[in-house]
Every structure is written in C-alpha cells, then in structure tokens.
What we know:
By secondary structure, the protein is of the alpha+beta class. The chain has helices at residues 5-19, 65-81, 86-113, 127-159; strands spanning 27-30, 34-39, 42-48, 54-61, 122-125. It has a five-stranded antiparallel beta sheet. Helix 1 runs antiparallel to helix 2. The two termini are 25 Å apart. The mean pLDDT is 86.
Amino acid sequence: xxxxxxxxxxxxxxxxxxxxxxxxxxxxxxxESFYYRVSAYGIEKLEINANKSIGDVTELWAVPFYFxxxxxxxxxxxxxxSFKNLNRQFKLARALFFVYLLLVVSVVIFAVVGVQTDEExxxxxxxxxxxxxxxxxxxxxxxxxxxRDKALIDSLNRLR
Length: 160
C-alpha cells in the first residue's frame, strides 16, 4: 500500500490537517480594543490592554470547524485505504478534491471578509491558514496518482 505515491500524498495531507486540531490559529483580526482569533475550535474575542498586549478571552463562539477537519481527515484516510477497489478510490479522490476546494475557498473568503465593525481592522494570517492551504495540493497530487493507476489498470485490461 505505501509503495504507491498517492498514499504518501494522502498521508501527508492527513498529517497536515491533523495539526489543525491542536488549536493552531487560522487567522485573526486586530482592532484598537479587540483581537478576534479563529482556530478549529471556534472564534475567540480577546481584549487588548492599555499597553497593547492581548489580554484574556472575553467571548467564545464555538464554531464546530473541528468536526469539518475531522471529517476531512477521515475522508482522506478512507480514500487512501480504499486501494483495493480502484473505481471507488477514484470517486472518493474526486469527491475529496472538490470538498477540500470548497473548504479552502470558504476559509479564504471568511479571512478576507472578516469582522464587520466600525473600527479599523487588520487581518493576520496564522500558521494554521498556511497549513490548511498547503494540504490541498497533496490531495490534487493524490488524485493524479489514482488517475494514473486507473489508466494503467484499464490499459492492462484491454490487452487481455
């Protein structure tokens, strides 16, 4: 199973997505008196003190983004482990690619639109944002590997 290159790509993608579950910040919004921190566990509103340091959490909105990340990891693993049925793996690889694409686009749009307030707001991208985006090309490369295997098997079946 591990000798196939798409399994390595899917494994890397699952590891990268798994790091988001440690609470790494995806992005944040900094204003004069507040700081919004977005991670897989929700949106935290932090107050900024008079000496410009970030204080304690004042509000927490529990957005279940970690359920989305966990289900995406499970879909990646299910795609990687369905190597015995190549047609199912090909369908799962396409579904994984489009679901991941939809999630990346929605996270980018949320990072751009951000918080609507009267104050001047600065966007700060965190490490989690870059990790989330970096995992996407690995799913694309895995889909290409599955497509090549499927083409190879189909050409061998034609020769028989």
